[in-house]
């Protein structure tokens, strides 16, 4: 590999590191109510059986592996690990909402012909977060997420969005009442922001309604990045509960939330948007000294050191 190519790759690694540090810092500076988690890259296959991934998502998962006569699966998603942390102890309604974030690398099988640069890869890092809340807290939590999306994307210069609210599909889990309340909470959060949006009737996930946000780049192209999804499925599958004010056990609502989507893909979007001419704070090489005479060389070396 040429030194030029090595330098280009080094710049990409540098940019990715800057992006990751920005996101992790934002959790504390912009939204200090999030707790940052780090979870394993694999788990016993029974975890993925309980979560439903083995049944519904197996075509996008890598082959399992045998470890000390037990079957393990490399993770395609972070969600089940956050659920296990929730279930590590009894929760009260006073404990909610809980907001847990993770920049976790996940691994998904993609056919070789579908791989495409930074935009479609087999291993990528999600700026993933999960919120566990009461039904009465859902609207406020959704509004907080949308405000965070606006601040984070705005920092990169993205201010124009195309927003889609996807509602209950024909096949779904959860009661009519919880779907109606969750969908209304999403609608209200969009109205609170004053954002224009379209409705995709029946386009939601089987486990809950969702909001998808596409950003428009410098030449008008749309890129899918942020998403906010309600989930009634995992709380049911893992028997997640909290003790309500009347002493009864109730199920929390789980919210999946991603701001940038994946770090790698968002890096590709930034390259396309800025045509490689990054803002100063994001540029891997912010300044270069070019001595025009031999006499200036010693000074340039001194400044660099």
Lateral strand order in the biggest sheet: 1-5-6-13-10-9-7-8
Assembly type of the chains comes to single chain
Any low-confidence stretches, pLDDT <50, length ≥5? 1-10
Structural class: alpha+beta
The total beta strand count reads 13
Rg from alpha-carbon coordinates: 22 Å
Distance from first to last alpha carbon: 28 Å
Strands, helices and their partners?
Layout: H1 3-29, E1 35-36, E2 42-44, H2 45-51, H3 53-56, E3 65-67, E4 70-74, H4 79-86, E5 98-107, E6 123-133, H5 138-155, E7 161-166, H6 176-193, E8 198-200, E9 210-216, E10 222-231, H7 233-237, E11 242-243, E12 249-250, E13 253-262, H8 263-274, H9 297-304
Parallel strand pairs: 1-5, 7-8
Antiparallel strand pairs: 2-4, 3-4, 5-6, 6-13, 7-9, 9-10, 10-13, 11-12
Brief digest:
The protein is α+β, with helices and mostly antiparallel strands.
Report what the structure shows.
By secondary structure, this protein is an alpha+beta fold. It is built from nine helices and 13 strands. It has an eight-stranded mixed beta sheet. It has a three-stranded antiparallel beta sheet with strand order 2-4-3. It has a two-stranded antiparallel ribbon with strand order 11-12. It is globular and about 80 Å long. The two termini are 28 Å apart.
């Amino acid at each position: 590999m040429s030194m030029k190519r090595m330098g280009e790759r080094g710049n990409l690694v540098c940019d990715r590191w800057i992006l990751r540090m920005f996101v992790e810092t934002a959790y504390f500076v912009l939204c200090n109510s999030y707790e940052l988690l780090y979870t394993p890259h694999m788990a016993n296959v029974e975890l993925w059986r309980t979560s439903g991934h083995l049944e519904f998502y197996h075509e996008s998962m890598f082959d399992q592996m045998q470890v000390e006569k037990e079957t393990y699966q490399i993770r395609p998603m972070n969600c089940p690990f956050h659920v296990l942390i929730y279930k590590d102890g009894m929760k009260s309604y006073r404990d909610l909402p809980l907001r847990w974030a993770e920049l976790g690398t996940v691994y998904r099988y993609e056919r070789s012909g579908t791989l495409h640069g930074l935009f479609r890869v087999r291993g990528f890092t999600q700026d993933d977060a999960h919120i566990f809340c009461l039904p009465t807290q859902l609207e406020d939590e959704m509004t907080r997420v949308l405000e965070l999306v606006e601040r984070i994307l705005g920092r990169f210069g993205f201010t124009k969005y195309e927003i889609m609210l996807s509602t209950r599909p024909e096949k779904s889990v959860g009661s009519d009442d919880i779907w109606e309340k969750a969908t209304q909470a999403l609608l209200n959060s969009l109205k609170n922001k004053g954002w224009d949006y379209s409705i995709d009737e029946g386009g939601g996930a089987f486990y809950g309604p969702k909001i998808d946000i596409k950003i428009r780049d410098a030449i008008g192209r749309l890129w899918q990045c942020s998403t906010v999804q309600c989930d009634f499925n995992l709380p049911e599958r893992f028997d997640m509960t909290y003790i309500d004010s009347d002493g009864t056990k109730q199920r929390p609502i789980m919210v999946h939330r991603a701001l940038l989507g994946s770090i790698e893909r968002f890096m590709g979007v930034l390259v396309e948007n800025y045509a490689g001419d990054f803002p100063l704070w994001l540029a891997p090489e912010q300044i270069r000294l070019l001595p025009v005479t031999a006499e200036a060389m010693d000074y340039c070396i001194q400044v660099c050191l």
